[in-house]
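Final report, closing paragraph on structural work. Over the funding period we assembled a curated collection of sequence-structure pairs, and we close with a single example.
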Amino acid sequence: IRRGEVRVMATFTGQELFAEYAAMAIMMQYFLMRWARRITERAFWICGMLLLLAAVAATATRGGAIILVAGFLYVIVVGGKVVPRVQSTRVVFVAIALFYLGLGLVEPLVSHLMDRMATIGADDSSVQSRADVLQQAVDAVTRNPFIGHGIATAAGTFRGAVSLNIHNLYLTLAYTIGIPGLLFFVWFLAGLWRKGKRIFDDQLADQRTREIALALNTMLVMFLIDQIKIEYVRQPMTMHLTWLHFGFIMASWRIATKQQRIPDEVAG
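Its predicted structure, as stored:
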């Protein structure tokens, strides 16, 4: 790993899926650290975040680092009324400062990721391969836009270095189940986002409920961004984790709705 010859993926089928999982777990552990009251609990979650940061670096996947930054920006900009912007900004500043102060120690671990971040662009072979398969998938969707080409995609379906996975969830859904299926899934995701935002924007809800909603909503945004260059449907375990996350969002919305009804019923 330190020589840049191994990109870790744990029990996932690809580095991108593992990096996405680790980045989203860092966000949840950030909120768990905020809720901790004892110094030992805070230390536990901080150590967990550091280990996950090391895992993201060891995947050498640019997407994991990008959505992690995007997630904290979302908390600062959109969730500033729930988690004070000063607190979130301070955490980001301290993390960046510690990274640079300890760069001499962690440089062997992050060098591969930094090299890949520096080479991203039109000339990058990975970007070129994915652009090629995306164009082929778009052409295939236009030939059969309503019912798609079926959920089973054989190896060698596409020409080039990437012959099986399209590396874009939204285009994958359009290709496999058609544009109507894609639109339904986007409508479903938009509903989840609205429900989460409604909770953490509700000033009548208790603080913990609002922060839980913000954490889950932020993780959803991170997921939506990362799926632009990967598709979670390629692995059953990732599909299970993703829909478990969706279920947590719905559960938090139901609990918050129930909490809002109880005072009304008591007052009545």
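The two ends are 63 Å apart (CA to CA). Confidence is low (pLDDT under 50) at residues 264-268. We thank the funder for supporting this effort.
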